[in-house]
Design brief:
With 225 residues, the chain is mostly helical. It is built from nine helices and two strands. α1 packs across α2, α5 packs antiparallel against α6 and α8 packs across α9. It is globular and about 60 Å long.
Length: 225
């Protein structure tokens, strides 16, 4: 049996540059050192950068009519760096000063949901893949990326799919909670057809998505693979 030669895997670098420059290098260095010691501020900076990248990929999908470029998260990155320098140099990956964040690889602790076992069961057709799961994941991706209108429209369909596909599987009390979500998610989806959602609708949307995720998580935990 002939073994094929390994093929080089292409990688892409995304650099998010602030539109407002630092006053001077000392201020920039102080900012960088502050991030080293403040995890909350570092996470906020990282979230802002990921949000910009999500908007960029979303615009690319629409401009090119290409559904395949997907959203990304820091966990998927080979390397994440935070630093400063002049604009052109930073775009080329050259910094006056920078540091590399610890890798955010997948957790090695075994999940109680047994995702690897379910993966095998799905591939072997021993477990049924539900449409509501995929729809729920899409709603979550839109929500996390700040695409609230898309999230509301996606969540409305996901909610109906959950109720239809899991009929008889959801305990009555939990099903009642999910069914109660029809009203707020309906308002959010209707508002999405007209424009942006207000803060209350966004909160309602996020709560309904969390309830759906909780129901699906309980189903996975109760399944045997």
């Amino acid at each position: 049996m002939t073994e094929g030669e390994p093929v080089a895997v292409p990688t892409n670098r995304a650099t998010i540059v602030r539109t407002k420059p630092f006053e001077n290098e000392a201020v920039a260095q102080e900012w960088l050192e502050r991030l080293r010691g403040d995890r909350a501020e570092l996470d906020a900076e990282l979230a802002d950068g990921v949000a910009v990248l999500a908007r960029t990929l979303h615009a690319h999908r629409l401009a090119h009519s290409d559904p395949h470029p997907r959203d990304v998260s820091p966990r998927q990155a080979l390397v994440v760096r935070v630093g400063f320098g002049d604009g052109e140099s930073v775009v080329d990956g050259q910094y006056a000063s920078a540091w590399e964040l610890p890798a955010q690889g997948a957790r090695t602790r075994r999940s109680m949901e047994a995702p690897e076992e379910r993966f095998a069961a799905l591939l072997g057709a021993r477990e049924r893949a539900l449409a509501c799961e995929e729809l729920g994941l899409r709603a979550r991706a839109d929500l996390d990326a700040g695409r609230m209108r898309e999230a509301a429209l996606q969540a409305r369909v996901a909610l109906e799919a959950v109720l239809a596909e899991l009929e008889g599987e959801i305990p009555a009390q939990r099903r009642a909670v999910i069914e109660q979500g029809r009203t707020p998610i309906g308002r959010a989806a209707n508002a999405a057809l007209q424009g942006e959602l207000d803060a209350d609708l966004v909160d309602s949307l996020a709560e309904v998505v969390r309830h759906m995720e909780s129901v699906l998580r309980s189903r996975r935990l109760s399944s045997s693979f």
